[in-house]
Specification:
Structural class: mainly alpha
Helix content: 40-55%
Number of helices: 4
Radius of gyration: 28 Å
Shape: elongated
Order of helices and strands: HHHH
Distance between the termini: 68 Å
């Protein structure tokens, strides 16, 4: 497939500078970018939560239930009066 792209002069200069830093021609460098961006990521297996279970297993037993409640407790949300008039 042939694609023609009109580049603004400053974009062309920037790409050319990057290509030269990598020891490539502008065409090779742009093609490398396109190939990299066109790759479809491999599908990830569905997450089951096992990573979280395994991480928690490493610290299980280090804290009492009361300590965990203290560490992760939230301040209660107090209702504010509302005036509907």
């Amino acid at each position: 497939m042939t694609v023609i792209v009109e580049l603004q002069p400053d974009v062309e200069r920037g790409l050319l500078a990057q290509a030269q830093l990598h020891g490539m021609s502008l065409q090779e460098y742009v093609q490398q970018i396109i190939v990299r961006e066109a790759r479809v990521p491999e599908s990830q297996p569905p997450r089951t939560g096992q990573d979280l279970i395994d991480a928690c297993a490493k610290v299980r037993g280090l804290f009492t239930d009361e300590e965990i409640d203290t560490l992760f407790s939230r301040n209660p949300s107090h209702a504010r009066p509302v005036d509907f008039e």
